[in-house]
User: Fold this.
Amino acid sequence: MTAVSTYLLTGMALFLVGLHGLLTLQSMLRRIIAVNLMGSGVFLVLTALAARVPDADPVLHALVVTGLVVSISATALALRLHGAIQRHREDDDS
Amino acid sequence: MNLALWSMAIPLVSGLVLLLAGPRQVRRWGGYLTLVASMASGLTAWYALQSTTIQLRQYLLLGNWEEGLAIRLELTTLSALLLLFTALIHGLVALYARFSRHGISHAYWPLSCLLHGTLAALWLSGDLFNLYVTLELLGLTSIALLTQSGARAWRPALDYLLLSLAASLCYLLGVAMLYGQYGLLDITLLSDMTQNDGATRLALILMTGGLMLKAAMWPLHGWLPAAHASAPTAVSALLSALVVKGPLFILWRLWSEVAPIDAAVQAGPLFAAAGIAALIGGGYASLRSPYIKTLVAYSTVAQMGYAMMALGLLLFWQHPQMHVALWLFVIAHGLAKASLFMAAGEIQNTLGTRRISALRGATQTVPIAMFAFAVAGGSLIGLPPSGGFLSKWVLLGPLLNDPWHWPWAAGVFLGTLVSAAYVFRAVIMGFDRVHIKRPDLNPDRTAQWLAMLPALLVWAMALSGNWLTAWLGGGGI
Amino acid sequence: MAIAEIILDATLIGLLLVMGLGTLHTRRTGASIALFAGFGMILALVWARLGAPDLALAEAAIGAGLTSALLLRAASITEEEEISIPARRQWLSWLFVAVVFVWLALHVIRLSTPVDSPSLPNLVAGHLADSGVDHPVTAVLLNFRAWDTLLELLVLLLALLGFRQVARRNQHPYDADSHPAPWPLLKAWSRSLAPLLVVTGMYLLWRGSESAGGAFQAGAVLAAAFVLLRLSGQLPVVHWSRWTVRLAALVGPALFLTVAGASALAGEGWLDYPDGMSTPLILLIEAAATVSIAVTLAFLVSGEEEDIAE
Assistant:
């Protein structure tokens, strides 16, 4: 068991925990967090793969930076939609 | 190759220009700029298509870096044809959106231009990670377009967003595994290296799962009807006609190039079987749907079944005719579905209800839209000599030759029956002139004719059938 | 492997898994978000441990910082609906996850040895001298794979467009009640913190061409400065309807596209920078991209109704 392989497995585990959360949790906020966990898992796999070579693979690092930006922008949009739905529901109730 | 790049850059630049211009300007000339951009993009795509008849496969290594290091853009006859198809549909929908009375907000124009550019980038890309970025871009553009119809689209948009993110992450994990094994992202280079081992198959499964979810392929289609039915009419047309085809294209490239051939042969029957399930399941749901737009949206799920079936049989037998059938089908479905959604939107706006029962007497109240619905529906069923018929004919050819293939042919016939059932259900209701639903508004004749336009084009496809089959048969495989 | 390293790895991984599980399955929303922020910080440490300082910076700014701020905002208007699935089904689903994990793990574990044949890191190292920058990650982002980065800027932009759309249809101010008047300490702190953040952001951008840092990290830090000032009420409303604001959000992708188009028209080909021009062009694009990223992220995190309205 090298460090790389343990981090690879951790990444996979996080991905699955996130996927499981997305499919089973009821609360929308938690599901949004779950997708973020899936993302972190995939990025961990990518970074662990990058660490296999001596100087770390810059291509994979660049891919993860790109991925991080996707995930923050999508999260912001998802939370906005979530907030708007909540508001709307409150208005309908009152 | 440069022509194809312009075909992609023109809509992207117009999108940015429209964003920079204020809403007042966009309201005034946004529609016209979009029309001009889609026409210019279509024209350059046409010339790019001409250039591929001389040189079948052109590629460009961006930045002129070495193979593997650079992102590769590829132009084949198929991608040129898809560029042209995208520009055509975008232009037709823009015409409707500009000149129909129930127009949409000014924010539509930049988004539809960016959608066009994104799809063009997707058709041209030859790099697994670059395709991931285009997928994400496609997803977010669709969400932004979807949220234009206001509060009722929020919930479907959020579900779509989360599933689409999860799907892209599955795809990305697959890309990571392929990179981990072969150290490459370039599809062309990968295609010579992949071996049929466990890790490669796992990567392919992950990527396929993600792409099937994004393309709303059975059994991962659950999100589509709510999302496509709640969008504004022009947006539904774009989403159903174009957006679901993007992931399908990646799926096709993945299995016909990256996947080792024996793995592709193993996976083929599974795709084809899922295709038949989609035809029947989607068709049945469409038949039972109480709303007009949901009917049309479920029919997208069903019709993607044909595409999956053609893809599966292409992989299974490696028969080039299936490749022709697959892409003919994509083009025919795109045109017919754009027309169906625009006609459905027109009917629903004029009659003032979303329920399918409102179609009673529609042949009298909104005759042209109802006619467009029937004409486009005819292509979905595959009545000759429509584009739908053409693609089905090409698909059935090899199926009927060999008695062992007849079960697949039976699946196609069953699917045809179901699609005939849901189209005729709507059309027959339209002829019920006893219980007429009175329209809330005066019918808008121009908009109805504009909804008819793509349907007429899909019937004209049969006339250009020889060229299309020759183009598709020459390139690709 | 030194024993110290094993202990470090075990601690980090243990914390990651516990916090990851906790943030999804803890009962209270507040705790969940706090755990998520902690998770982001641990992840930043993991990136540093795996030799990825660029990612550590990006994660600390984006993952842990901005995402947590977003979640906290969202939590302030959400009441948690507590619906738990029956224990039996939960047990089954976890069993399923475990089986899938074992299946994936068996294949993934084989990837831990590097590939021998064509290796991208070697190619990058070989061509680094021609790329115009000294830091390999920046070279990949802005030269070798610049097309990805260009599309990425469009992704950010589209997220903002979708975000605005949802906001505009929402008649009520998004969170009028969750936005109390800033307390004095926050004001004082933000006055000294924000300039520091701006300086840090500029430094990250400037340093990006030779070591870890770059447009994305710099943009995120600048956005944080903006959000801080906005929350403490020291910045006026920034109207999307002003064309200058829209230009700031668009300048990154627009300039990038212009360079791509110009290089196709006048030069060697799409995104092929002319000889000797790589360094200035990359710096220019990076600066423009930083502005766009900062503005976009700032809108996404602190998007007020009046900012976004037309």
About this structure: The two ends of chain A are 59 Å apart (CA to CA). The helical segments of chain A are 3-24, 28-50, 58-93. Chain A touches chain C through 70 residues (CB under 8 Å). The CA atoms of residues 35 and 60 of chain A lie 21 Å apart.
